[in-house]
Each structure stands twice: as C-alpha cells, then as structure tokens.
Amino acid sequence: MTGAALPPAVAPARRTSRTLAILRGLIRDPVGCTALVILSVVLVAALFAPWIAQFDPLEQSRRMILKPPSLTHWFGTDDIGRDVFSRALYGTRVSLFVGLMVVVLTMSTGGMIGMVSGYVGGWADTVIQRLVEILDTVPSLVISLFIAAMLGPSVQNVIIAVTIGQFPRFVRVIRAEMIKVRMHDYIAAARVIGAPGLRIILTHGLPNLMPTALVLGSLAFGVAIMIEAALSFLGVGTPPPNPSLGTMLAQGTRFIGIAPWLIIFPGTMLTISVLALNLIGDALRDVLDPRQR
Amino acid sequence: MLTFALRRLVLGFLVLIAVSIIVFVTFRLVPGDVVSQQLSEAGAVTPELLAQKRAQLGLDQPILVQFTRWAGAVLAGDFGTSLWSARPVFDLIGAAVVPTMQLAVVAILIGLVLGLASGVTSALWRGTPGDLGLRVVSTLALAIPQLWLGLLTLTGLAAVGYFIPLPYRTFLSDPVVNLQQVIFPAVALSLGVAAALSRLTRSAMLEVAEADFMRAARARGVSSATLYLGHGLKNALIPVITLLGTQFGHLLSGTVIIERIFNIPGLGNLLFEAVASRDYTVVQAAVITYGLITIIVNLLVDLSYGVVDPRVRERLS
C-alpha cells in the first residue's frame, strides 16, 4: 500500500481532470460503456417522462380495462384503464429519485461517520462499531419495513427508512479504508505540522476514499431501488396514487395469469435500472482499481 | 475453539438486548397504537374506552416500567400474548420460524450447488464463450429483484396452467404438498445467492490456480479434476463461506417479500401483519428472532472457518 499502488487518476491537485479521467476510463471499458448507454436511456426516459408518455399516468378509462399491449398502449392498460407505459415511466422516476436521495444520504452521513470512526479510533470508534453491529444484526429489509411502517407512507419516509437500512454497510467499509489510509506517511506529516483532524479527514482522507465510495455508492443505488420497490409492494412505501414500480407489481399480483403485462413491464424497468447501476459499479471498480483486473 | 464460541454467544446476546431496547423505544415514540387502531376498526372510539383498554394492557405505564416488565418476562421465557389476537407470542413465532427457516435453508442449498458449479465451470472455461455466457447470466441474476423473480415465477407457472396448492402445509404434515409450495419460492430466492457465489468462486479459483502448490501438483501429474476440486476449490472455500454468511442476511430480507408473494405463513408475513396492526409484542419478538437467526448463522460461519482451515483452528485454540 504505497503511493505507487494507488490508481494514477488520484492526483489530488487536478480535480476536474480526475473526473474526466474516470469518465474516459468508463467509456473505454466495454462493460462501463454499455452500462452508461443503458443508464442514459433510463435517465432520459425518467427525466422526460411528461414528454415521452402519451397518457396521464393517473388518467382512468372505463373502455380500456386490462387491455394487452398494443400500438397505442405499448405496455397495455391496468384494471382501471390506466396506461402502463406512462405509469412505468413515472414509476421509474420515483425509483431513481428515491435511490439517488438514499445514496446521497448514505454517502454523506455513513461516509462521514465511517471516516471519523476510522480516523479517530479509540472508544468513539468502538461505540460506533457496536451501534453498526446492532443495526447489522437485523436484515436490512426488516429494518426498513419496520421504520417505514412506523413513519407512515410517504416518499420522504421511504428515503429515511431505506437509508437507515443501508448505511451500516457504508460505515463499515469506509471505516476499514480510512484505517488503511491513516497509516500513510502524508497523514502523519499533516498531523505533525498541526493540521486539525477534520481537515486531515476532508483534504487527505476523502480524496483517497472516493474510489471506494463511488463503487459502493453505485451498488447501493441499485439496492436502494430494489428496497423501495419491495416497500411499495408491501404497501408501506411510496403512497398511491403516485405510480411506483413496487405498487404496480402489487397491483399486478391480483391479475397473475390474466394480465401478465402488469408484472412483466414494471419489473423490466426495475431490473434494467438496477442492472445499469450494478454494471457501472463493476466498471468503476475496474477503472479505479487496476490491481483487481 | 469453545471459549471463542462462548465469547461470540455472549456478545450476540448483548447485541440482542440492544436490538430489543431500540425496537421497544422506537415503537413507543411513534404516534398511533394498537388500542386506537383496534377501536377505530370497531368503530367506537371514546377517550374512556381508550384509557381503560390501555391500562388493561399496561400501555399507560412509563416506558422504563413497561420495558423492565417485558424484559423480565422474556428472560423467564414468556414473550407475552399478541395484543391483536391474544394468542401467545411464543407460539406464533414458533409456528412462523419453521417455514421461514425451511425456505431459507432450501434456497441456500440450491444457491450453493448452482453457484459453486457455475463458478468452477466458469473458471475452468476461462476466456471461452461458455465462461462469458455464465458471467452474463450471473450479472443478470444479480440485478433481478427477488420481488420480480417471485412474481415472474408465478406468472410463468400460471401460463403453463400450474397453480401451487393452497393452503400452506408443513413438511411433517404433508411433505408432498409442502415441497411443491417450497421449491418455487426457494429457487426464486436462490438465484441471487447463486450468482454472487458464482462470481466469487470464479475469481477465487483463478487466484488459487496461480499458486505454487497448484503448479507443483500439476507437475506431479495430478488429474485436472482432482487438481481443481481437491486443491483449488478447497483453498477457495474461505471467501465462499464469508459470502454465504453475508448472503444469508440478504436471503432473510428476501423471505419477507417471497413469503408474501407465495402465501407462506412465515416470520416475514407475521412481522408484516404485526407491524401494520402495531402489535408491539409480536413485532418485538419477530425482530429479535431475526437477530437471533443472524447471530447463530454468523457464529456457524466463524466456526466453519476453523473446520475448513487448520490454520484458523490453531490460532483460535
């Protein structure tokens, strides 16, 4: 673990070029390139949903009940005549929004707690690790289900519930990385010249932990989307009438064998989003950490 | 080895106490309790009735009193009765744990077999289209949410005109029906485990393949199969066991969803219904049971390192 082993892209001085280098690496990597293409398609579909969807996702039609996919209704219609394609687009939008917020929250809170815990060590570290261990003992979906049900169904509460279920892992991994980084000479040097702990963490720790955090973040994004769908499926997630992929799937369970398109299309959107994020995570790992190749 | 196991057990017990305190406090900090829910469902909410019912259930006492009372009873082996159905919580949990554990164990076994087979094959076929195909499949399987996989299984079964028999039967009462009910959800649960395992086994096998003892064995003329399975896989097992431990947690998360989809009266279904009706006693016991299962699995994982690797055994004793 000397400077030579670190990825060359991590030159703290030039920040913009580093972001560019990571992007360039992703595009050159065949897996990363595919993932970027898929993710941009999903992002465009979600962001421009109001322009792409030909129907209002909440508009009901008594004459179009449970119609199979057709040229006007690409993904068919549901039991009260709503257009499944439009609903799936808006649902993806909710999924991506929740996922993004969860990642931002886990990366900032979990990342900060992990860095401090790893840098400070001692009793603070012990206390934090024991707390993480307690959260880790209960399956993350059980935690999220419990919290979401306690707080009541709303998008904001889903974000909180998923974040609490996800951040123990983040704290654990970032802490372990921080302990490795702490051993480096330049940290000792910074300490010797009297730099305060917080500054050392932010200016020396953070840049070195970014690769790990990015990989972890993109994988957590996918997991967050899956858990949001699961919570909505169970009825404690995104509240109706907001279209959410999980609620759409729950609705589809009542028509299994009659209207398979209610299951197939929302699930496909869900899987494609998760797949793109997982692939980006894989590709980022390769790009940022050439040792593993 | 024994002291190590005992120390882990004591630690696990402390963690469980902490979990129950957190659950207990969270539940009481949030507005809306089982009494108002029950009464509003009955359509008769008067302040006097609410107060009377709360006093009867001990909900009007301070949190600390409630907790010590509850914890004391639990230590004596009494988990109380469900606030909703008035049945003993211990019986409810006991009945629900069996289907969940059966599902999880069958799923992990299927995942183990599929994952190891595909990982080893992938490593042996390194760089060929077969290897690529297996890797693509496992990447896909990792991205498919268990929720969707379960629903797709039901859709597919309905399409071929097969319907899983209902209601649920335990293995002891009716093994044939039980297996029909368990095998499909177990497969849906196992694919994620299999995929993660396959990727890990592949890279662990490839790493071991470079080791000197493998070259030496090959030079001695050990056959390819013995070489990879006897020497390679055996040495790649440690990370595989670690992964199985972490995957078991995901699997338990998955059972909550899968049990709902496939109508299996397990711990997940019980927890879900109890949370929805604010049935404190059942929720507490269910969360603690999940914790207990995780702690036992983690202990087994730690102990099995010693079984697989003599170096670990020596260090522990």
Characterise the protein shown here.
The complex is a heterodimer of chains A (293) and B (317). Chain A has helices spanning 15-28, 30-47, 49-52, 84-120, 122-137, 140-151, 155-182, 185-192, 197-234, 245-252, 261-288. By secondary structure, chain A is an all-alpha fold. Chain B is mainly α and 317 residues long. Chain B folds into two domains: 34-78, no CATH class; 89-316, MetI-like fold (Orthogonal Bundle). Chain B is 80% helix and 0% strand. In chain B, helix 5 (89-124) crosses helix 11 (267-276). The longest helix of chain B is centred in the C-terminal third of the chain and has 38 residues, at 224-261. Chain B starts with a helix and ends with a helix. Chain A binds chain B through residues 130, 133-134, 136-142, 145-147, 149-151, 222, 226, 229-230, 233-236, 246, 249, 252-253, 256-257, 260, 263-264, 267, 270-271, 274-275, 278-279, 282, and chain B through 15-16, 18-19, 22-23, 26-27, 30, 139-140, 142-148, 151-152, 154-155, 158-159, 249-250, 252-254, 256-257, 260-261, 271-272, 275-276, 283, 287, 290-291, 294-295.
What are the salient characteristics of this protein?
heterodimer, A: 293 residues, mainly alpha, MetI-like fold, 11 helices, B: 317 residues
**SS field, number of helical segments of chain A:** 11
What would the principal axes of the Cα set say about the shape of chain B? globular
What would you give as the CATH superfamily of the largest domain in chain B? MetI-like
Helix content of chain A: over 70%
What is the tally of helical segments of chain B?
Answer: 13
User: How would you name the CATH homologous superfamily of the domain at 94-278 in chain A?
Assistant: MetI-like
Q: Any idea what the shape of chain A is? A: elongated
SSE arrangement of chain A, N to C: HHHHHHHHHHH
CATH hierarchy class name of the largest domain in chain B: Mainly Alpha
The whole-angstrom Rg of chain B is 24 Å
